[in-house]
Amino acid sequence: MPGIENLLIQNFGTEIIYSFVIILTSLIIYFSTREIYELSNYKGVNYFRKSFLFFAIAYFFRVFIKFLLVYFNESFIVDLNPEIFPLLGVLSTFLFVYFSTIAVFYLLYSLMFKKWENQKEEKKDKKPRINRIYLFHLISFIIAIFSISFRGALFYVFLNFIVFLTIISFFVKISRDNKLKNKSLHTLYILLFIFWTFNVIEVFIPNFLQKTVLIIYLSSLAIFLIILYKVLRKCGAN
Amino acid sequence: MKRERLEIIKDILLIVKKNYNSIKTTPLLRKSNLSSKIFKKYYDELIKKGFLRENEINYEKTFSLTDKGFKFLDRYKTILDFIQEFEL
After folding, report:
1. What letter does residue B35 receive in the DSSP assignment?
2. Torsion, CA A107, CA A109, CA A114, CA A115, rounded to 10
3. Do A44 and B6 touch (CB under 8 A)?
4. Which of A167 and A34 is assigned the larger pLDDT?
5. Whole-structure pTM value
6. Which residues of B touch A178 (CB under 8 A)?
């Protein structure tokens, strides 16, 4: 039966604090880089800051999904079918998956766009091509559609594993090409991608990572706070 | 070595600043060390983004920095450091 008691019993407070800190951190990163972007109009800065805006939106829907699951006492969000708005679960899932995937793609693209543009310039390639960022939006859209169309724990693990492998393979390529200029940043990003995958899986299969959930939350918080520290150190306190 | 976009913008703005914030088109083009085609591209961008202002004194066109232009020069190192820190 739906009820407020469920929220108190199932440690929903931890979820709220965790999501609140991640959302706040992401938004501080987004707004504190605004001046740098407005002055430089640099594409990499744009992709970087938008990535954190998308993380903030994704984490908002994540905590909203958690709220719905606990409140309506359901295990799978796509099964949720409240009377007032029957598509609430499906829509929340779609938006969560879409924004969390595109957030990771934007972060990846902020590292890669320069190399891709240089390659295009060197080859004097004037063929009209689809901008890769639109391609990333399309992939995120398809992944989000898959997430609401199919059910089953193994499917979600498989889907996230594929996305994770794709991102890591891109990332390894960047690290090799850039000759690991900034090792700590690369390690940080890899950890961010790993814990992002855990965070997504944890929403779809709540009992799958139950014993390690606190470690996942603390590690994710640490990663976001380190990135925030790096941003504020470079941007100043604007 | 090819200059990056931000470096070129910094160089153009710095030339204007060092000329007591008032310079005509021809010396600016010469000192910026760019082809006239590339210079035009940057000139349009700097005017559009509000870094430079066109003034007309005695039928002569000169350029001066706006507040945003001064701010760019002031924050140039921060922007560069940020881009390098996150390998953007």
Report:
1. -
2. 120
3. no
4. A34
5. 0.90
6. 87
